[in-house]
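Onboarding guide, step 5: your first structure request.
Type a short instruction followed by the sequence, for example:

Predict the 3D structure of this protein.
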Amino acid sequence: MYEPNVVGDWQECDEHAGLRVRVHRLESGEPPRGRDDAAEGLTYFSVRVTVENRGERPFCIHLEDGQIDVRTGPDGESAFIDWRNSQFIEGFDVYPLRRVTAVLYAAAPEASLSHVDVQVQLRADEEWAGRRLWAGGIGVQEVSAGASAGACRDGLAQQVSVFLQEQAEEGTA
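The system replies with structure tokens like these:
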């Protein structure tokens, strides 16, 4: 069974040797240029998507609207994406041993922020990579380098895996 990445994990792009992607710093907070009127009654949060080039040649990276999908809550409802405040990657050349980061601002009901799924489909040198999924939540500890990181990641990954298995079982009954 496919298991999603945990927010904070790096994921290698098999389609583009040397590239890897990370969804991280999922945190609540107001956007820098003010709230969008359409987000009234919702809680804002931000998430960063970083692309790192560990290869031997530069890649032209695109990570724009439509390539990042954010879902919240146990039912996976779409979050409101604040395109005006978000910072995307539009045709940036990432040289070896360099990184580039997109910052996405979104909003959703506060009660649903303990479950946040972020799906990313990177485009490098005009070629699409496969979609990758990260699972996390506001208030859920992000994985970091250290002895307890494995336990945190394993615990959240186990919870996500059990949830997905339960959902699959309900659908087959």
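Each response can be followed by summary notes, for example: The domain at 5-143 is CATH 2.60.40.10 (Immunoglobulin-like).
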